[in-house]
Amino acid sequence: MKYMRVALVYDRVNKWGGAERVLLALHELFPDADLYTSVYHKEKAKWAKVFSIIPSFLQDFPFAKNSHEFFPLLMPAAFESFNFDKYEVVISITSEAAKGIITKPQTLHICYCLTPTRYLWSGYEEYFSGRLAKILSFPAISYLKRWDKVASSRPDEFIAISKEVQKRVKRFYNRNPEIIHPPVALIESDLAQKDLNKKGDYYLVVSRLVRYKRIDLAILACNKLNIRLKIAGAGSELERLKMIAGPTVEFVGSVSDMELISLYSRAKGLLFPGAEDFGIVMVEALGFGTPVIAYGKGGALDIVENGKSGILFPHQTVESLVKAIKKAEKINFVIKDLKERAKYFSASLFKQKIKMYIEQSLQKKKI
To answer: Does residue 166 sit in the same domain as residue 259?
Structure first.
């Protein structure tokens, strides 16, 4: 694709996660694309050194690089301050304000939506659970909701990362997005292609240890069944989870990529008891021939074929998960099929779909 220039826009460049993998895949497609963002933290985002990064005026504010959450009311102005006149294509990758950039009619703006701003919409009750919190936050939230609605009308095209996010975009923004799943690079590694089919006797959890991930369900289910569980990850819930863990549960902490590959490839199954917008670890597990036992909501519905690449359990309870594990134990999952399912979420396929989508959108804009 030969464009005059391409720009990428992301909410903030100060961490590593699934969205950052999207940015790196887009960089492979558009190596000369500039990256615009509210704040950039070099030490916490070393992955971003491949980009030419243009931060907003918030970059010079005290504490903004580390604590962007203190500046929500300034985010609209930060993204509206950028000028994109020299670009033919702009792609905003966002779960917050980046979609609110202002472009001229001749510029194609595609929003790759990770989710509509969670604390304003689907997660409002979770973020502001108390009556006092709702009262105190009302003026700011009302302003941000109004702005967010306006911002959602600015992109020419919307893409959602999953069926769940697609539903939210339709509900909150009244837009009808295509779905292009995010890329999962690990499944294309040389090791993923090897015959790693010597399964161990343990189940696996790979997750940040925070409350909404519901790791407690996996622990209590394995306690009840007296089966081995390895938990890879760190987080604020570690001590609480250790207190409820039985003797068959092992916390392995934060692990390297090579250690993670070994854990995935030897596990009997991955337990995924939370509800996520997508859920990259489910795809990674499938890529190493490991079935997934997941709560049947959110991104799991895009990834797991019930009874073929794993088991979806209907209720977020210990009893429901126990039944799902027992059911999975009776199924002879075919490793080749699991790996083939994972390829549907490969980085190469993501780039192919994005490229085609941009070409089609450019043609539509010219009509």
So the answer is: no
